[in-house]
Sequence to fold (386 residues):
Amino acid sequence: MPVVNRIADFATEMTAWRRKLHSMPEIGFDCHETAGFIAARLREFGVDEIHEGIATSGLVALIRGQGDGPVIGLRADMDALPMNEETGLPHASGNKGAMHACGHDGHTTMLLGAAKYLAETRNFAGTVALIFQPAEEGGAGAGVMVEEGLMDRFGIGQIFALHNEPGLPVGHFRTAPGPIMAAVDDFTITVTGKGGHGAMPQDATDPVVAACGIVTAIQTIVSRNHDARQDLVISVTQIHTGSADNVIPATAWINGTVRSFDKGVQGMVMRRMREICEGQAMAYSVRADLDYNLGYPATVNDAGKAGFAAQVAGEVGLASDPDSPRAMGAEDFSFMLEARPGAYLFLGNGETAGVHHPAYDFNDDTAPYGASFFARLVERAQPAQG
Fold:
């Protein structure tokens, strides 16, 4: 097996950590018990410093190598999803309404495995900053950590992260130079008319018909306003209105998501949605208010760092794809990549249920590959002198 031998030696221990974390999921910024478990393991390993309470429950651990040198950052997310688990496993969630359905328990375990190895060997120059982040799932915890001065406080010069991928074989990695995951925005359009009796529409101003016109017009943004050579998704996912068959409501709501990679494309979408709302409101004699929320930016890898990371992944994995297709999903590691150059990679989880599925479970066979990648990345990026 191409993983680091010493990390393979404590794979069973890593499995125990991961299953403990899986059984105690926490949501958003409230990851205090998880952070306590992580800090206890880090102290056992003998890391040099632990800084807690960053972005509420996040923490950063420092391990110093041999002599002076730069600081490399490695990040793992540690929050769970607000959903119930349906695996029936012995280590299933013990917290109702919370589940590690995206593998953040595995990401944390892989970084802990790298920490144990790096604290033992210290076969690198400079310092490694191990970043355990809360609130990736919708809370932009990475952005909060950056806003609180993460990069400057610890002198981080480059940064890397992994995410498991069901369907990709265990031991396989993939990444890409440039954009690898999309920016994610959401919108709500409130259509306000005048309610009335369904039998007398002439006495009302119907927001339902107007909402349907707005939804139809939104579909033309991708097909008629956008350069087809660039990726863009606009999905209307909700329409809420009405309370009875014979009542014309006063208000209708339209909700949806926008995924893009280019800020110019993102700006065009915002402009066209405002124009459509204004034009359709006039056409139907209603009011249409757009609330457009900018979410996570696109996750953009530094081309050089992505190529370097792919080489390292090839050393410890069974296969590594350095130029894989980008995905329309989103990731708040994007905030860290906006602050410092680095790369985001996917690591195979095998034929498991998909992430965000109630039957998902992180594949423990994957952990030694991820931990080996993190450890070898540090040793290759900042080799010890002498």
Observations:
- The two ends are 29 Å apart (CA to CA).
- The longest strand covers residues 156-165.
